[in-house]
Amino acid sequence: MPLMYRCPGPHAGPEGKTYDFKGFESEAAGSAAGFFLTLPDAVAGKKPAPVPAEDAPPTRAEIEEQAKKVGVKVDGRMSDRTLLKLIDDAMKPKE
């Protein structure tokens, strides 16, 4: 859980600026909330670099591609959840 910073805030910081800090579950969540990984970056007001969303759910296109790979027939009326369950079932070892 990264501790991240932003300016302004309730704490006295360098260069006469104030800052706030908070712990986030991921760097992506902190960046989305306007926080920076380091206090100097927050003070400088640098724009946070975009962080790849590794925890993001797969897109519909990615789900459909995986379904084709494992032999699951895709019906456009299926929800992502249903399709993911069918894919998971298809990938389980057969007994």
Give a written overview of the molecule.
With 95 residues, the chain is of the alpha+beta class. It folds into 2 domains: 3-44, no CATH class; 60-91, no CATH class. Helix content is 37%, strand content 17%. The protein is built from 4 helices and 2 strands, in the order E-E-H-H-H-H. The chain has helices at 27-32, 39-44, 60-70, 80-91; strands at 3-12, 18-23. A hairpin with a 5-residue loop joins strand 1 (3-12) and strand 2. The longest helix has 12 residues, at 80-91. The protein starts with a strand and ends with a helix. The model has no long low-confidence stretch (mean pLDDT 85).
What are the main properties of this structure?
2 domains, 4 helices, alpha+beta
